[in-house]
Design goal:
It is a single chain. By secondary structure, the protein is of the alpha/beta class. It has a single domain, classed as Nucleotidyltransferase, domain 5, CATH 3.30.420. 37% of the residues lie in helices and 15% in strands. A five-stranded mixed beta sheet has the order 3-2-1-4-5. Helix 2 packs across helix 3. Its EC number is 3.1.26.4. Its cofactor is Mn(2+); Mg(2+). This is Ribonuclease HII.
C-alpha cells in the first residue's frame, strides 16, 4: 500500500524513466500531490499496464498542486553520463514546479542537493510513496509519447514497442542500420552483456 506522505505536506516526488535505454532522452517527472490524495490504481509505473499509466496521467496532472516533466537528450547524456543526466532531469523537473516543495522524495539512492530543500532518497520509492509513483507515471508516459513520435522517423528500430530499451530486436536493428541522431553514443553505461559489439 502506497503512503501518501513522508513527514511534510507539500512534498514533491521525483523519478526518472529511460535511464537504461540506448536511444532517446532520460525523462524526469516531479509532482506535488494534494494532502489526502488517493488513487487505488496508482503504483510504481513498471507494475502498471500501459493503459493504466495512460489513464492515470490526466488524473495526476489535473489533481496535482503542481507537476513538471523534463527530457534530457542524448547529446547531454553523452557529455555528462547517464547518472548525472538522470539527476539533472530531476532537478530541471523540480525547476518547473510552480509551488516550492517543503521536501523532495527521490526514487533510488543517488541525488544531488537541490537548492536548500531537504530531500530523502528512497530505494524502490515508486512502490512506497504516492508522490514518487505519480512522478514515475508522468516520466514514463511523457517519455513513451516522445518515443512514439520519433518512431515515425525511424520505424526500423521499433521504438513504439521497445521505447529505446536494449531489446534483442533493437540491438539487431543497430547492427543492421547503424545508429541515429537519437542514439546515445555512450553505450558504456550498459552492463557488459548488453554492449553492442560495434
Amino acid at each position: 500500500m502506497l503512503k501518501s506522505h513522508f513527514k511534510f505536506s507539500n512534498e514533491a516526488g521525483t523519478d526518472e524513466a529511460g535511464r537504461g535505454c540506448l536511444a532517446g532522452p532520460v525523462t524526469a517527472g516531479a509532482i506535488i500531490l494534494p494532502e489526502g490524495f488517493k488513487n487505488s490504481i496508482l503504483n510504481d509505473s513498471k507494475q502498471l499496464s500501459e493503459l493504466k499509466r495512460e489513464n492515470l496521467r490526466p488524473i495526476l496532472e489535473k489533481d496535482a498542486i503542481s507537476f513538471s516533466v523534463c527530457h534530457v537528450f542524448e547529446d547531454e547524456i553523452d557529455k555528462i553520463n547517464i547518472l548525472n543526466a538522470s539527476i539533472l532531469a530531476m532537478h530541471r523537473a523540480l525547476d518547473g514546479l510552480t509551488s516550492i516543495p517543503s521536501m523532495i522524495l527521490v526514487d533510488g539512492n543517488r541525488f544531488k542537493p537541490y537548492q536548500d530543500i531537504l530531500y530523502e532518497c528512497v530505494i524502490k520509492g515508486d512502490g512506497k510513496f504516492m508522490s514518487i509513483a505519480a512522478a514515475s507515471v508522468l516520466a514514463k508516459t511523457h517519455r513513451d509519447a516522445y518515443m512514439l513520435k520519433i518512431h515515425e522517423e525511424y520505424p526500423m528500430y521499433n521504438w513504439k514497442k521497445n521505447k529505446g530499451y536494449p531489446t534483442k530486436e533493437h540491438r539487431e536493428a543497430i547492427k543492421k542500420y547503424g545508429i541515429t541522431k537519437y542514439h546515445r553514443k555512450s553505450f558504456r553505461q550498459l552492463p557488459e552483456q548488453l554492449t553492442l559489439g560495434l
